[in-house]
Amino acid sequence: MGLLTYFERVTLGSEKSIAEAKMIKSKVTLKQLEAFAFIVDTGTFRAAASALGTTQPNISARITAPETALNVILLIRDAGSLRLTTDGQKLLQKMREVLWASEALIEEAGRHELIEETLRLGVTELVACTWLQTFLRLMKDAYTKLRIQLEVDLSTAIDSRLMEGQLDLALQTGPFKTKSFTNEALGQEHYCWVANTELSHRLAAKPALDKLFDLTVITHAKNSQACAALHEVVKECGLGQERIVHSSALSACLPMVLEGLGVALLPERLVAADVVAGNLHEIESDWLPNPLLFHARYAPARSARYVEKAATIAKVAMQQN
Questions:
Q1: The architecture CATH gives domain 3-113
Q2: What residues does each domain of the chain span?
Q3: Does the pLDDT value for residue 16 go beyond 50?
């Protein structure tokens, strides 16, 4: 039994007293309140239907029902756009409070298995390649029926999706377009220089940056913080930027450096297994970018309680790896 179904079946007192009191609960359901909140957050009936795993007609019906029961208009449906009415603006926060209270009651009762919702999660590729599996396992332990809808993309794309209301939680690096989200620090990812055995033997024990640029330099996407710093120092030192080979997919960098196509500037955690196995060798040099700072970001004004819990679990997962 899911969160919404569970609470919609709860009764207080006898059925007779409920009927006599004509309680509003029989006319306004949690599913309807949830649909209204999702329409506001995502901006369209289609996006709300997709997020809730239902159809647009169902979403429309879930809005019409409370409008009829409460004798109000919540939304103005213009061609191609939606606008909250004055009543809709006043009732939105109250509806969210009802949804939060229902989840709080579930948690207080220790019945997390009743939460059968969907967490829309956005992560960067580095998270996906390193500690995502640990995070998913810990989430499964905490919320056995919670579904996770995963998106893996560049941090800039994840940031945009979060702002559009298409994601509940983002595990990403900065910079961010807005400070209007809760921003919980998860930890740091340090960088290192690596090469395969053959190339590492051709280099001095602690080569300067200019010596590394005698070779091809493999690294990840251009718009990352580390690559921006690399281009800046290369320009200052008058080195050849044409030596840098960028890959938007971190997973593609490893095969290239393992094949000896160049030295690589990559996050330590990504190459750790190959370094331990002796497939790659870490190279000490006179320059490294600042560590990547990872954050869990979500919108507290619209997020379910399990989203905040997921952010806490993300910090544990990152520190365990």
A1: Orthogonal Bundle (1.10)
A2: 3-113, 117-188+293-320, 191-290
A3: no
pLDDT in tens, 150-168: 999 988 899 999 998 889 9
- DSSP assignment string, 196-246: EHHHHHHS-SS--HHHHTTS-EEEE-TTSHHHHHHHHHHHHHT--GGGEEE
Q: C-alpha distances in angstroms, 215 versus 16, 200, 261?
A: 82, 11, 9
**Do residues 191 and 269 lie in contact, with contact meaning Cβ atoms separated by under 8 Å?**
no
Q: What share of the chain is helix, strand, coil (3-state, %, to 5)?
A: 50, 20, 30
Which CATH number is associated with domain 191-290? 3.40.190.10
To the nearest 10 degrees (0 to 180), the angle between helices 250-258 and 268-277 is 30
274-305, pLDDT tens digit by residue? 999 999 999 999 999 999 999 999 998 888 89
Residue range 117-188+293-320, CATH number: 3.40.190.10
